[in-house]
Structure formats: structure tokens, C-alpha cells
Design brief:
single chain; alpha/beta; N Utilization Substance Protein A, Chain:P, domain 4; GMP Synthetase, Chain A, domain 3; four-stranded mixed β-sheet; 19 helices; 15 strands
């Protein structure tokens, strides 16, 4: 039957979760140390406990060497000859024990032994905790809230205590002592005061474990979780993929009427969860990851550096970025790519700047617009507008800011620019360009007349006409030429009159656009 002392050691071992042999060894080491302290000796000393009687005996032991020349430590070694005088059967390398009386040990020695026992037990407990939890990093454990500290929460894991720092807590969660929760084991810190088990409620592994518990398709492997991005207490994005084409991965995670995902949201104290379908195509995956925003297009900027550019409508930009950049930040974590998000207007301005930086296209002097008068051209050049392209890019408001440009002049400039680029509104006549044969351009007047005479002769010969008919035809041609010349003179007179009217109108516009007597611009 075991002694009372040994039974007490077994009880202590069960409470601390350590082996009884470790506690027995601690007791023996404590008695040996106390005995050496009492006798004030430097000899090697051990102690042993009898489990049946509970008696602890301390003894000094010496190692046997062959001869005097092998003795290095006279206190702890002795020769074979001296050892056989005490014990004839001893051999070289053996030990001789010399028991010490422990009954004189007083209160001080007992207190010292107690301290040694507690220290040994604490060290054994630390080793047990470290070996128990060190290899379980990332595992979800059931814990009970033991106490609340100003910044940390202390949990009871059963065999050890765990600490949850402030940075590993969700801002939505409040705990009460005795409450049971699930936590993620992060790591075990082997500090001087003992190993500290660090747990978390902000790790993405907690969300993954909750989905495995609530969604049977994830538990049996039909639906797999490919990526999770989480900001504890705010929002979580989770990408899922189905191995079975007949199973909708998003629908399986949401559940009927959202029952499955709502159960997880309650466990996380109301944290928002976005469930999206995973895609191997990064552009498609990026569009889904930025939900609920609608993406216009996605392009890969740098494949090696994993950087993409996302263009959204101007009205969707704030929704795509999210509150304090949360949506795009979580999407970048989910993708593992850098995301540069821009609106349509920002992209258009960027393209324009790039085109301007490249030097643009060829430019045309503004003087090429012949419909504008010299006075208007001088005003435009004075304002720094020297090319047709600059004039075409300017808005009516910008043109009105130029001194001397009024509404009538603005309209005239608009019409002239459109005509220059070949644009005519309905009802406007295009200038008629007479068609001239290329062969006639290169011929002299004599050659042309000879060719006409030859053609007339050929025609006459072909029709077999008489000389009188040819003479009559020539007289008719002469009369026709005279009539054409008279018409040309009348048309020239009409054109001159139109030119005079145009000059009068331009002078009136200039006077109207000038500065009145009070110094105000009438334009």
C-alpha cells in the first residue's frame, strides 16, 4: 500500500497534469539539497523515497577508480583498494553509498525543500503545457472565460490558461466570466514565467471553422474554401468553389433563407460576411471580389508583380472602395494582388495626359481657317490660340473669356471650325469643285484648240455632213460663246456686290463688338 505522502504526490500530479515520477524526483532533489546545506558539504548527494513507507533517505556516493593516479576529485572519488576495504565486491566504476541522517533537518531545511519542490513542479508544468499545445497552432479550441483584465481576456483551456490580447479581439464582442466561446490557438510563447498560450477571435481560421461546422458541403469536401480575408468586427470576404457542377457553392454556404450564414454571423456578434464564387481567371475573380460594386473592366498591369487595374463607373467608385477603403483592401487580400481602382473620368484624364506627354499629333496654324477675318485671328493669336486643334478643343465659355469675342463672333468661329474639318449641318451647301481632266492641265491652249478642231472634224466625218452645215455650226458656237461671256460678266458683278455687302457686315460686327462709350464690352 502506498504511503500517505505518495498519495498526496499522485493527487498533485493529477491536478497539475504532470507525471507522478516528476513530482517524486522533485521531492528527492529537494531533500538532497537540504541535507547538503545542513551538513555544509560539497560531496555528491542523492535522496530516494520509499513509496511503501514514505521514508526519504539521503546519501553521499563516491565513484571507484583503479589507482591513486586516476583520482581527480578526492572528495567524490576513491581508489579500488580503499573501496574494497569497505565493500569487497565493488569494481572499478562502481559507487559506494554513505547514508546521512535526515532527522536533524530543521525548519529552514524543510522550507528550502518546499521551495525546490514548487520550482520543479512549475518547470514540469510548463514543459507539459508547451508539449501539449505547441503543435496545435491554428486549431480551434473550446474555452471558458476565466477572468477579464483591462486589455486582455484570460481563458481556461482545461489543462492551461490562455491569453487573448487586445489586437486579437473583435470590437463587437463583450465577454462575461464563465462564458464558453471558441478561440483559435495562435502560438505558445515560452517565456521566463512559463509558456503563455495565445489565442484569437480575429483570425480567419475561426470563420473557416464555423463554416465547416454549419455547412455540410464544406465538411464533406464538396465545397471548398479557397481564400478568406477578414477584418474582425467589420467584414469578412470568403471565396468558395464547388467540386460538383450541380452544387451551387454560394447557395450552399448561405443556406435556405440565409439560415446557415446567419448562424455564423450571430456567433461573430453581427460581423458582415460576403460569400463569392472563386474563379481561376483573375479578372473575373476581381470583379466578384469587389462586390457589391459593379466593375466596368479589369486589366492586368504587371503579371510578375501581381498588379491589376480596375475601372468602375463614376457612381460606383465610392462603393468599390468602401468605407475607409475596406472593400478594396479586403478584395486585395482575397486575391493576393495589388488593386489600382479608378473611375471612368480618372482613366480618361490619364489617357489624355499620356497623349499630351507623347507630343500629340501634327498641329495646323489657326490662319488656315480662311473664313475667319484678320481681326478675329489677331484676337485669337493674342489670347495664345495659335493652332486649329487648340481652337477646336476650347469650350464656348473659354472663348467668351477672350477680349472682343461676343456671341456673334463665337457662332462664326464655331461654323468656321466645322467647315474646316469638313462638317456641314443640314441645309448648308458644300463648295463645288470643278472636275478638270488631268490631260488638259498639261496641254497648251494651242494643243487644246487643235484637239477640239480635230474632234469636230471627226464628228463631221462620222456624220457625213456638208461644209455648209459645219459653217452654220461654227456660227452657232460663236453666238453661244458671246452669250456665255455676257453671263459671266453679270455673275462677276453680282459676286462683287456680295463682297461689298460682306465687308459692310464685318465692319458692323466689329463696331458692335467694340467697347462702348462707358468702357463696357458689348460682346
Amino acid at each position: 500500500m502506498a504511503s500517505v505522502l505518495y498519495q498526496s504526490i499522485e493527487t498533485l500530479s493529477r491536478d497539475k497534469g504532470i507525471e507522478p515520477a516528476v513530482v517524486v524526483g522533485a521531492v528527492e532533489d529537494a531533500i538532497a539539497l537540504a541535507t547538503r546545506k545542513y551538513y555544509k558539504t560539497q560531496e555528491n548527494m542523492r535522496a530516494e523515497m520509499d513509496k511503501e513507507t514514505g521514508e526519504i533517505r539521503a546519501y553521499v556516493f563516491k565513484t571507484v577508480v583503479e589507482g591513486p593516479e586516476q583520482v581527480e576529485d578526492e572528495i567524490n572519488q576513491m581508489t579500488l583498494e580503499a573501496a574494497r576495504a569497505l565493500a569487497p565486491e565493488v569494481e572499478v566504476g562502481g559507487e559506494l553509498r554513505f547514508y546521512k541522517d535526515t532527522s536533524p533537518l530543521g525548519r529552514i531545511a524543510a522550507q528550502m525543500a518546499k521551495q525546490v519542490i514548487f520550482q520543479k513542479v512549475r518547470e514540469a508544468e510548463r514543459d507539459t503545457v508547451f508539449l501539449e499545445y505547441n503543435h496545435r497552432a491554428g486549431e480551434v479550441l473550446n474555452a471558458t472565460v476565466k477572468r477579464l483584465e483591462p486589455m486582455d481576456v484570460i481563458f481556461d483551456l482545461g489543462k492551461a490558461e490562455a491569453r487573448m490580447p487586445k489586437r486579437e479581439q473583435s470590437r463587437l464582442e463583450q465577454f462575461a466570466v464563465g462564458e464558453r466561446v471558441r478561440v483559435v490557438l495562435l502560438r505558445v510563447d515560452r517565456a521566463a514565467k512559463g509558456p503563455q498560450v495565445i489565442v484569437s477571435r480575429a483570425a480567419p481560421a475561426l470563420v473557416q471553422n464555423l463554416f465547416q461546422s454549419e455547412v455540410p458541403e464544406i465538411y464533406d469536401g464538396t465545397v471548398t474554401i479557397r481564400a478568406i480575408a477578414r477584418e474582425a468586427g467589420e467584414r469578412t470576404k470568403i471565396a468558395v468553389m464547388s467540386r460538383d457542377k450541380d452544387v451551387d457553392p454560394v447557395g450552399a454556404c448561405v443556406g435556405m433563407k440565409g439560415m446557415r450564414v446567419q448562424s455564423i454571423i450571430r456567433e461573430l456578434r453581427g460581423e458582415k460576411i460576403d460569400i463569392i464564387e472563386y474563379s481561376d481567371e483573375i479578372t473575373t475573380f476581381a470583379e466578384k471580389a469587389l462586390q457589391p460594386a459593379k466593375v466596368s473592366r479589369v486589366s492586368i498591369v504587371d503579371l510578375a508583380d501581381k498588379q491589376i487595374e480596375v475601372i468602375v463607373d463614376d457612381t460606383q467608385l465610392s462603393l468599390a472602395i468602401g468605407k475607409k477603403g475596406q472593400n478594396v483592401r479586403l478584395a486585395a487580400k482575397l486575391l493576393g494582388w495589388k488593386i489600382d481602382i479608378k473611375s471612368e473620368e480618372e482613366k480618361r484624364q490619364e489617357v489624355e495626359q499620356q497623349m499630351q506627354a507623347m507630343g500629340g499629333g501634327p498641329t495646323t496654324p489657326v490662319e488656315q481657317i480662311t473664313e475667319l477675318g484678320e481681326l478675329i485671328l489677331e484676337k485669337l493669336i493674342a489670347a495664345g490660340i495659335t493652332t486649329v486643334e487648340e481652337l477646336a478643343d476650347m469650350t464656348p465659355e473659354q472663348l467668351e473669356e477672350i477680349p472682343g469675342i461676343g456671341e456673334k463672333t463665337l457662332e462664326k468661329i464655331s461654323v468656321a471650325v466645322r467647315h474646316y474639318f469638313g462638317q456641314y449641318e443640314e441645309g448648308e451647301e458644300r463648295p463645288v469643285v470643278p472636275e478638270v481632266e488631268a490631260s488638259s492641265i498639261e496641254k497648251t491652249p494651242e494643243e487644246i484648240l487643235a484637239a477640239e478642231a480635230s474632234s469636230v472634224g471627226e464628228v463631221a466625218e462620222a456624220r457625213d455632213v456638208s461644209a455648209e452645215e459645219i459653217a452654220d455650226a461654227e456660227e452657232a458656237d460663236s453666238a453661244s460663246d458671246a452669250t456665255s461671256a455676257a453671263d459671266a460678266r453679270e455673275e462677276k458683278i453680282e459676286l462683287d456686290n456680295d463682297a461689298v455687302d460682306t465687308l459692310v457686315n464685318e465692319s458692323q460686327e466689329v463696331s458692335n463688338e467694340g467697347v462702348d462709350r462707358d468702357g463696357h464690352d458689348r460682346g
